[in-house]
Amino acid sequence: IDQSLVNIDASLDRGGIIQADVLSNSPVAIRPLVPDLPVDATFERGTANLSTTIAQLETILNSQDVSGVRAQTNLNLSVAEGAIALQGQLENGLWNANVLVSEINTTELSRPILQNLTTTEEQPPTSLTFPNFNADVALSGLVNPLLQGDRAEVSLDRVNANWGQQSVQASGVATLANL
After folding, report:
1. In angstroms, what CA-CA distances link 88 with 32, 35, 40?
2. Mean pLDDT for the chain overall
3. Do the beta carbons of residue 49 and residue 71 sit within 8 Å?
4. pLDDT, tens digit (0-9, with 9 covering 90-100), for 94-134
């Protein structure tokens, strides 16, 4: 992918169980794959493990129901001069994720937004600077409503975020829905 090495080891046993492991220790630029991304981002390294059955693959294709899929992942990304580490699991239709965000440059992230808010006669406010963003977040919920575009509740098991002198600690439930 983008001239970087990704190893995939997959097997199918007699019972129809598919097991796949993905490993990459090579950086992969994300912007060539997602051209509208507002900032540079790089997949640094990561692993993923997936287990399902052939019958479940048919269910996924027909109904986007992934309740029979087991998956684990550990990903490391560099974004806006900072880093994001993600650990996630999926089992029995439930997902959980731990996300650690370190030193994300919010000035860099805000520039495309600020440029879109100014008119063609105005110069974008490039002299504005913002503090870096850090967060430690644990989330969980049902995966099928997210995939199917339905109303979904996400449990915010832990949210610790810092932006300069501002900080927030929270937990609770967020409801995601189309308005």
Report:
1. 25, 25, 23
2. 86
3. yes
4. 999 999 999 999 988 887 777 766 655 665 566 678 999 99
Residue 132 C-alpha from the chain's centroid: 19
Cα separation, 52 vs 153, in Å, equals 25
DSSP secondary structure string, the chain? -TT---EEEEEE-TTSEEEEEEEE-S-EESTTTSTT-SS-EEEEEEEEEEEEEHHHHHHHHHH---TT-EEEEEEEEEETTEEEEEEEEEETTEEEEEEEEEEEEHHHHHHHHHHHHS-SSSPP-TT----EEEEEEEEEEESHHHHHT--EEEEEEEEEEEETTEEEEEEEEEEE---
